[in-house]
Structure formats: structure tokens, C-alpha cells
Amino acid sequence: MSDNDKTPPSGQGAGEAAKKKDAAELLADGVDEEVIESNRRLFTGWQWALFAGLAVAYSLFHLITLNVIPMETWSYRVIHIAGALILGYGLYTGGRFAADTQQAAPKWQTVLSALLLLPALYALLQTVLMWRTIEGGAMRIEPHIEAWHYGYPLILATAAAIVMSWLYRQVREKFALPDLVLMVCALASAGYFLVIYNTPLRMSTGTSFAPMGISYAAIAGSLLILEMTRRVTGNALVIISLVFLLYVWGGPYLPGFLGYPGLSIGRFFSQVYTDAGILGPTTAVSSTYIILFIIFAAFLQASKVGDYFVNFAFAAAGRARGGPAKVSIFASGLMGMINGTSAGNVVSTGSLTIPLMKKVGYPARSAGAIEAAASSGGQIMPPIMGAGAFIMAEITGIPYREIAVAALIPAALYFLSVYCMVDFEAARKGMRGMRKDEIPQFRRLVKQVYLFAPIIILIAALFMGYSVIRAGTLATASAAVVSWLSPHKMGVRSILKALQLAGTMSIQIIVVCACAGLIVGVISLTGVGARFSSLLLGLAGVSQLLALFFAMCISILLGMGMPTTAAYAVAASVVAPGLIGIGIQPLVAHFFVFYFAVMSAITPPVALAAYAASGISGANAMETSTTSFKIGLAAFIVPFMFFYSPAILMEGSGMQILRVAVTATIGVVMLAAAVQAWYFGAVKAWQRLLLLGGAICMIYGGIYTDIAGLAVGAGLLLMQRSRSGGRPLPT
């Protein structure tokens, strides 16, 4: 008999059982691991130490400035963007990596890149000399110095190094010379702004008296932001930005409401890198709330709270029918609320939940779609709501606490809808849950429930009246303290690792906010947003529903292929003013565009979250995005409630809010039943149409429509009970 045919002794069997049990306890191990993008460099040795140190210093700079030593606002935002650009160009390549040193860049590219360092360093030197000139009492810099000794060398080095970075090949472990040129250009651009914006010349921006150096620095800075955006998010946002920039000079030649008088290059760029554009609301939010909550999320990752969230969800819902899908809803909602990116959340939690969903019977496209819908929903879940709530508070002036409270019922309706979609599909297909030995033990996880403390402290601090910055700082500190009670204690090394992770994680969102600020600047300086508002006002004269539908389409279109934060920032500038202009309350208008900007991540044909999920599930990307749109359908209907039933946003009396919440809850259950063809049992095609009509009636929120919807739901329930002969219906 071979060794493989022998029956293991009882002790060995017990050992195998113990290992299986331990494996179940570590089911979600690795969810908190950092996601490494395909174009991200993996440094070793002194280069790793250098960029790790820069990332730590960048995170500490924000913590200290926000809490201890405040800076002048524009200077702080300039450094905030420049730091992200310098880190980004160090960590992300502009092209493809070389497979080995033999395939690295040819010598002529290296020589040319080295030559480009000369004008970049010369421009940086000029910023130092201009600073000394201003400090010496000069009122302004000579125009020929700004042009020939600073502006032209800077723009030449920036543009040429960007093109060279597309061609230059280097192995993944080494730094590329063109990116060093771009880092120096980022320093030179930011340096000039710091010099000029701390003098009375700052007041001249946007006028004919503005120094041309501001325009040169802004052109270089905009090019750097666009290229960095391309590296971390792809081409979609860059293309949209370029279309808006082209509008600045092409707009005067366009007919109808799109036309405007026109702006010169100098005047436009002298103002776009101010609080009217790049340094405006989007960067204001990224430099305060967003960076702080990225640091908070990094501390949670370092203390393995994400692993605990997912394990807790498995223990609570894993044994229900279609268990992994329900786990995905809870876990991805929690993680997505914190990390602020739908596609990134899909990658982190979906790598675990999608294979398990396929294992219990979900088709690959459904598994990916459920994860995409749940991850996108995290962006609308209070109290953090990704980052959109902070941008909304900045733009509208409505206190963040009111926004978080208003988001409660819509978020609950969305996740209830997704849950019912998942449950009804599992019931229709007869899927099982996970076995007891496949999931962590709930009683053991309950003993670590204190790991929820940082989020509870955050919510409590916000509702006790602390500022968002103070509440976020307290929550971050509590994450480190709470970790001391867990197996993953955070010491000095772990805290430095969390700060490094925060600096790296912040690059994408900061650059995206700066790029969105460029678009916002175009909108505000050309007045195109006001013309969209007049268009919506004209449509509202025909039909308010038509105006809302048009606003929905524009919000989704602007958000396609863009990260959530940028999508909302642009939609809030273009669409929300028009909705406010037709008489909609600011909170309602901004929630309307916010929901559709978020849901653009699961809207075909360009659905970033669904595409990320299809890469894990192996399903067709378009099929996955179509299915995720179906699963998240409630999010495309509920925003219309904001207009017809503002009580859903806590606007109204207690009884109004309660009635709308209850009827909308029944409505989304009926909507899920119509989509999945299951309502306490299988339903026929005509019954699905009735359910859909009843659901829309319930979601609409009027007293008569509520009665009609209840009649449809109750009638179909009685019909199914009579068909089953009074036997209990399957659940």
C-alpha cells in the first residue's frame, strides 16, 4: 500500500481539522493588502527608502498643517498638489516597463532625457532668484526674465519630458530619467506660485496686469496634472478635460447657447490655477477632508480592520442562500465607504468574494456585477460616503452632518434593493449558502467587535459637534490605539507603514481632484455652466420630469470613465446650478447629480467598477456592466424621489419621513422582485410588469400612488398564496 493510500491516524485527522478551522478564521486574510497597479514601480534598496520617506513626509505634512501649524490657504494647496505630482511621477511609469535591462531605453533617449534636465533645473533656479528679487523689495519680475529664463524653458522641458516618458523603457525596479525631469518641473511650477501668490501680485490674476509667469507656470502645471491623471486613471478624464480646454478657444465660434465672447490664453491660464479652478473647491476638499480620511483608511488597513469587516460579514451572512453575494454587499459597502473608489474596492474585496459567489452557483457575470454594484454603493453610504459628501459640503455650504443624515434613507434603500436582487436570484436558482466549516466562527469574531470603535468614534465626534478634521484625526488615533487590543498591534514601524501607504494611496484622488478643478475652472471662467442652467430652465417650462431626465443623462455622461469624486465635482458645476434654477432645493439638486455621478461606475457602456469586476470574474465586460446596472437599478429611480418626495432626505415632519421610508422600502422590494422574476415564488411575465408598475408607484411617494402600489403588491402575494394552496411560500 502506498503512503497516499494510508488512512491518517486520528491525531493527524485532528490536526487537519484544526488547520481547516484556522483557514476559515483567516478567510478574508489579505483584503487589507495594498493593490499594486500594473504601471506602478516596485523599488528596492535606497530608492524604496527614498520614496517611502517622501510618502511618510507627505502624510505627516498634512496631519501637522491641518491640526497644529496652519498655512496660508493657496500656498498649502499648491504644495498639496505638487507633492502628489512628485510622488506620482516617482512611482508610476508613463509607458510600459522593460522586461529586462537589454530591453531598456536606448542610449539616445537617456542622453536626450539628461539634456532636458538642464532647462528644468534652470527654471527651478530662476524661481529661487525671483524669490530673492521679491524679497529684496522689487514689486514685480521683469517680463523677459519670466518668459525667456523661466516660462519657455519650463514648458519645453515639461512637454518634451512627457512625450519622452511615453517612449522611455526601464525595468520595474528602477527609476526613469524623464520622470525625474517632470519632478523638477513640478517643483519649478509650484515654486513660482509660492513666490508670486505670497505678494500683492496675486490679486492681479485674471486681469491684463497679471505677470505672464503665472500663465507659464499654470500651463506647465496643467500639463503635469493631465499626464499624471492619465497614468493613474486612464484616458477618459484627460479626454474630457481636453475637450473643455478646447472649448475655451473654440467656444466663441460655436452657435447657440454654447457660444461665448472668448478668453485669451494668458488671461485664462493666469486665473485657472487659482481658487477659481485648480486651487478651488475640489482641491480644497482633497487637501483637507479627503487626505485626512485616506490617512484614516490607511491606519485601518495597517490594523487589519478590513480583514475583520469581511470576516464579520461572512460570519453574519455567509450561511444564508447565496451567502457570498450577501457578504459582498455588506463588506464592499463598508470598505467602499472608507476607501472612496469603486474600482479599487472591487479589486480589494472582489478578489475574495467573486470566486466564492461563482462557487455557490452565481454565473460569472452576476458575481462580478454584484460586487460592482455593492462597491459603488459604498460611495453613497454615510458617514464617509467615499469623498463626495465632503465635496458637497464644500460646494453647497450645507454642514457635513446634515448631508450625512440626509443620505441615510437613500443608502438603506439602495442596499436593501441590491440585497433583495441577490436573495431573489439565489431563491430562483436554488443556491445554497456556505457550510459552517467554510466560514469564520461568529462567536469568536464578536470578541473583536471593538475594531468597529474607530468608525463609531468618528460618527460620535461628528454628531457631538467636532469639526470634520478633528473628528477624522481622533478616529485615526483611535485606530492605532484599538489595534493594541488586537493581534495586529501598531508600533512605530506599522504607523510609518500606514503613513507611507496613505501618501501612496492619496496620489490618485488628489490628482483627479486637481484635474476636475481644471474642468471646473473652464466652466466658471467661460460661463458654460450658466448656459446649461438656462437650457434646463427652458426644458422645465415644458416638463420638469424632462428636465430631470436630461440632468440625469448629463450627470451619467460626465461621469463615464471618471472616478466618482471627479464625476460629481464636474456634474455639480454643470448640472446642479440648473436644477437649483428651476426651483429645486440645493440639497436635493446636489444629491440628485451625486447619485448619478456615482452610478456612472456601473452604467454601460463605460462602467469602471463593472470592468474591474469582469477582470476578476472572467466574464464579458459589457455583460457584467449590463447586469450591474440591473442590480443597481434602484439607484437610478430613487433620485427622482428626492424631487417628488424630499422627505426621503429627512426634509419634512417625522410622519412624512416615516411614511415615505416605509412605502419606498416596499417599493424597492417589489422592484427587485420584478427584475429577478421572484416574489415569494416564481412570477410570470405579466406579473413582473405589474410588480414594476407597483414599485414605481410606491417609490413615487404620493398617497394615491402608495395605495395603488400596496394594492398591486398585496394582490400578487394573495395570488401566489392561493396558487400554493395555502402552503408556506419559499423564502
UniProtKB/TrEMBL annotation:
Compartment list: Cell inner membrane
Domain of life: Bacteria
Listed InterPro entries: DctM (IPR010656), TRAP_DctM-Dct_fused (IPR011853)
TRAP C4-dicarboxylate transport system permease DctM subunit domain location: 221-649
Keywords: Cell inner membrane, Cell membrane, Membrane, Transmembrane, Transmembrane helix, Transport
Database matches in Pfam families: DctM
Residues spanning the membrane: 48-66, 78-99, 111-130, 150-168, 180-197, 209-226, 238-258, 278-300, 404-424, 445-469, 507-528, 535-560, 566-584, 591-611, 631-650, 657-679, 691-718
Primary residence: membrane
Keyword NADP belongs to the record: no
Membrane topology term: Multi-pass membrane protein
Known function: Part of the tripartite ATP-independent periplasmic (TRAP) transport system.
Name this polypeptide is given: TRAP transporter permease
